């Protein structure tokens, strides 16, 4: 086999294992796509999940045809993040509790081979929630934290680093599991980052196995940032066969290594080939967990279904309604596009809120309150505009509820309000003299930068020879570059970083039109597709329309006009799919 041509020393090897290693019998755990589909269905119901995926697939197909970016499915982290944010409002079992059973699955031969490698001092990392690798060492395990990361050790001390947390029976699984956007958006923990960099500087090899290469928020930024001078080798192993496009996709992970290999074949054979004493026997007994037979332990879905079944009908309706409202708003799809009973859904959620002490409810989790209330407000506003007669029923039945919700929301410090009181000199002081940190580059700073940059762009369109405004544009451009120097995952919302990229792109077009290589646009598309946000995707396309119209105005070349029209046409198509409206060309060029 091709993999056997490479020789590895376990004690100088880092292995990153993904969900692919756990799909083989008897573990039979899901791959990333299957798990994402299932969690979406559990959160919003089968019919709504199907419609959401149909809309996302149609939009992603349009994007792939236009730009080559292939994102056929929403990210698991987006779904789990929204589920986690909403279920704290309800007492009782939460959907994430279903992951506990992942650690009770029997290990397969891939897990046993990885365990042997760990025993031989390989550093084994995994994005998986299960502890099947450690199960090979017996039933007794302990959860520790090493180098800022969950570490599960077997009886003999052999262990595995769980980059996205572990499905362990702890007091709060929701903090143990890290595969929600809230927990991983800051990237790999600095302690683990330093630990891995030290090993790579010592020429440790890195092997990716059973891994899809889709952890855009934490793992990909770490490996993409590498520019190693050491002799470390990187091997990305793909199970089965792969086409050229798949190989091109995974190259980004290993481009920072001097020596790079992409191999294909059977995962078990590959692991046996690099493992000392790597002979394996499918009939070999597991290390403490009984092999699954035909019992319900073969069905990982049942643990989740039991949680759903444990809720009464009212609880389940409220939870599902909250998930629908939040997910559709976050993704950028109208509620009525995916839920035929949207009015019942809103009535159910408002009925629940009427029974609550809203000050206490939202005050207990201020970190989540602002976004939850914003989702409620946004959904109600859209539905009222489309269905005023039907929504009047909500207004009557709520008996002032929405007024109370809006009062609480307005009492929270709004980023737009804070930004409105910020002068441009204060903005420059923060950006140019302050530390590039989330504390300084917060919501108010981003809102203020957006306000002043758009005003200066509008002024340039009115009078491109305005000396004072041109000087301000130069300074705004420098400020944007400073703010973009802070990694996107450090911002409160990734959409903030996208906003800054859009502004930088427009200013670059009008100040130095011959220097632009459209790198900002490529970065924006990747970001908004990763966060599965059709609304932000639409804004990026419309920004591309603006930019090309500006370049047409400046350079007079017809190709820019045609490109602008193409982007506007794609925007119209995406808006129609998602049930949204877009402004006219004239209004968009007003730089709203």
Question: What's this model, at a glance?
Answer:
The protein has 592 residues and is an alpha/beta fold.
Fold blueprint:
Blueprint: E1 13-17, H1 32-44, H2 46-67, H3 76-87, H4 109-119, E2 123-126, H5 132-135, E3 142-146, E4 149-153, E5 159-162, H6 173-176, H7 181-184, H8 190-201, E6 205-209, H9 219-224, E7 233-239, H10 244-254, E8 259-265, H11 267-274, H12 301-310, H13 313-331, H14 335-338, H15 342-354, H16 358-363, H17 366-386, H18 388-398, H19 401-411, H20 415-420, H21 424-433, H22 443-462, H23 467-484, H24 494-511, H25 519-530, H26 534-555, H27 558-578, H28 585-588
Parallel strand pairs: 1-2, 1-6, 2-5, 6-7, 7-8
Antiparallel strand pairs: 3-4, 4-5
Structure overview:
The protein is built from 28 helices and eight strands. Residues 171-175 and 282-298 have low confidence and may be disordered. It has helices at 32-44, 46-67, 76-87, 109-119, 132-135, 173-176, 181-184, 190-201, 219-224, 244-254, 267-274, 301-310, 313-331, 335-338, 342-354, 358-363, 366-386, 388-398, 401-411, 415-420, 424-433, 443-462, 467-484, 494-511, 519-530, 534-555, 558-578, 585-588, and strands at 13-17, 123-126, 142-146, 149-153, 159-162, 205-209, 233-239, 259-265. It has an eight-stranded mixed sheet with strand order 3-4-5-2-1-6-7-8, sandwiched between helices. Helix 17 (366-386) crosses helix 19 (401-411). It has 592 residues and is an alpha/beta fold. It has three domains: 10-29 and 105-277 and 298-303, 3-Layer(aba) Sandwich (Rossmann fold); 312-413; 417-589. It is globular and about 75 Å long.
């Amino acid at each position: 086999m091709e993999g056997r041509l490479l020789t590895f020393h376990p004690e100088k090897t880092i292995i990153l294992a993904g969900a692919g290693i756990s799909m083989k019998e008897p573990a039979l755990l899901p791959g990333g796509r299957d798990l994402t589909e299932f969690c979406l269905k559990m959160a919003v119901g089968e019919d709504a999940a199907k419609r959401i995926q149909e809309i996302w697939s149609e939009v992603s197909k349009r994007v792939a045809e236009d730009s080559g970016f292939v994102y056929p499915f929403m990210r698991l982290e987006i779904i789990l993040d929204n589920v986690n944010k909403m279920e704290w409002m309800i007492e009782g079992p939460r959907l994430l509790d279903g992951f506990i059973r992942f650690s009770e699955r029997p290990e397969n031969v891939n897990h046993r081979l990885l365990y042997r490698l760990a025993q031989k001092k390989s550093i084994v990392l995994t994005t998986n929630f299960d502890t099947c690798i450690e199960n090979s060492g017996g039933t007794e395990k302990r959860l520790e934290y090493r180098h800022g990361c969950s570490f599960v050790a077997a009886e003999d001390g052999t262990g595995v680093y769980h980059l996205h947390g572990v499905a362990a029976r702890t007091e709060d699984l929701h903090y143990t599991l890290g595969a929600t956007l809230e927990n991983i958006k800051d990237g790999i923990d600095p302690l683990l980052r330093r630990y891995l960099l030290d090993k790579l500087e010592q020429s440790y090899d890195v092997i990716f196995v059973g891994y899809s290469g889709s952890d855009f928020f934490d793992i990909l930024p770490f490996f993409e940032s590498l520019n190693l001078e050491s002799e470390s080798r990187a091997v990305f192993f793909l199970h089965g066969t792969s086409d050229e496009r798949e190989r091109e996709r995974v190259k980004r992970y290993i481009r920072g290594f001097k020596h790079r290999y992409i191999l294909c074949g059977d995962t078990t054979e590959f692991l046996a080939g690099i493992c000392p004493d790597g002979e394996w026997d499918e009939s070999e007994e597991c290390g403490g967990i009984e092999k699954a037979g035909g019992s319900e332990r073969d069905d990982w879905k049942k643990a989740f279904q039991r949680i759903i079944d444990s809720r009464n009908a009212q609880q389940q309706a409220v939870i599902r309604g909250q998930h629908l409202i939040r997910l559709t708003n976050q993704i950028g799809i109208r509620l009525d596009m995916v839920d035929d009973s949207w009015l019942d859904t809103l009535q159910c959620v408002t009925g629940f809120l009427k029974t609550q002490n809203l000050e206490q409810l939202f005050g207990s989790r201020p970190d989540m309150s602002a976004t939850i209330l914003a989702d409620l407000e946004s959904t109600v506003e859209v539905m009222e505009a489309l269905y005023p007669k039907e929504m009047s029923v909500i207004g009557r039945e709520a008996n002032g509820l929405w007024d109370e919700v809006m009062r609480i929301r307005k009492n929270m410090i709004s980023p737009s309000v804070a930004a409105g009181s910020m002068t441009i000199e204060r903005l420059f002081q923060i950006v140019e003299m302050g530390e590039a940190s989330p504390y300084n580059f917060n919501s108010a700073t981003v809102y203020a930068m957006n306000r002043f940059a758009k005003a200066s762009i509008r002024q340039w369109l009115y009078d491109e020879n305005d000396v004072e405004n041109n000087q301000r544009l130069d300074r705004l451009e420098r400020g944007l570059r400073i703010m973009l120097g802070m990694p996107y995952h450090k911002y409160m919302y990734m959409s903030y970083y996208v906003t800054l990229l859009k502004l930088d792109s427009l200013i670059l077009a009008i100040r130095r039109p011959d220097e632009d290589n459209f790198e900002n646009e490529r970065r924006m598309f990747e970001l908004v597709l990763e966060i599965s946000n059709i609304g932000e995707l639409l804004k990026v396309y419309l920004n591309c329309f603006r930019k090309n119209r500006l370049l047409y105005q400046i350079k007079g070349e017809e190709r820019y006009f045609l490109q602008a029209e193409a982007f506007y046409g794609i925007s119209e198509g995406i808006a129609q799919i998602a049930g949204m409206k877009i402004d006219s060309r004239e209004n968009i060029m007003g730089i709203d």
